[in-house]
């Protein structure tokens, strides 16, 4: 749930001012549809992303196996026995009476995680959830193109968490472009960026962390290429979202899951 504040108040005020001016000068607010999800998203259909999980600490996740959720390291406190997390699955509406709720038994935070890169973790569930899992990318072949992101997080910086699952599409951003935004804060081997760099407006946001960024592979199956990790604010022009690069960690994740 952390939100790294990497830049000064002044550049932030300038950015907000610029966005406000642009919005005011272009058209009246009434001409805009209500903002949706994630930032700039729309509602996901029931069953559209059956592997999506909401975690009780306020993060997202995806079913890696029926009894293991892949999420972000910064969503958990460390590794070991842990029965304090509830995973909610099977519904877009978190208040639905058909929600499947299962407690955690163990957490494995990425070995060596220290807040810079390596932002992945596994949560073992008390029982399997009978829903489709999400395959993870094991090489870089799909680290390009347009990605889907989804979550119950805020729809704007500082906004509240959502009852209904929201989704959005964000394009791949190469490391060089992303480094122009984030400099040495970016760990290019561990992180993959996505977003509309020039315009902003669509992004994940607080509470989406740990959730998957995914796309279809050549067989038409969904494949997870990222884990929601961090960004400067949400959907700000010039600042793409930063995601854990799943292909980098695929072997570590598989090994860790086998031992959980
Ligand atoms: N760290 C945030 C969380 O814990 C996710 C932030 C994603 N930010 C972004 N601009 N894409 O929920």
Task: Explain the overall architecture.
With 260 residues, the protein is of the alpha+beta class. The chain contains four helices and 15 strands. The protein has helices at 9-26, 37-40, 175-182, 246-258, and strands at 42-43, 52-55, 59-65, 68-71, 80-81, 86-89, 100-109, 121-125, 135-136, 146-151, 166-173, 191-194, 212-216, 222-230, 241-245. It has a six-stranded antiparallel barrel. β13 and β14 form a beta hairpin. The longest helix has 18 residues, at 9-26. It is globular, with a radius of gyration of 18 Å. The model is unreliable at 1-37 (pLDDT under 50).
Question: What are the main properties of this structure?
Answer:
6-stranded antiparallel beta barrel, 260 residues, single chain, 6-stranded antiparallel barrel, 30% strand, binds arginine, alpha+beta, 15 strands, disordered N terminus
* Shape label: globular
Task: Name the structural class.
Answer: alpha+beta
- Strand order, largest beta sheet: 10-11-12-15-14-13
Average pLDDT works out at: 88
- Enumerate the spans where pLDDT stays under 50 for 5 or more consecutive residues: 1-37
**Termini Cα gap:** 24 Å
Percentage of residues in strands: 25-35%
User: Helix tally?
Assistant: 4
The total count of strands amounts to: 15
Largest sheet: 6 strands, antiparallel, barrel
Helix content: 10-25%
Helix and strand string, N-terminal first? HHEEEEEEEEEEEHEEEEH
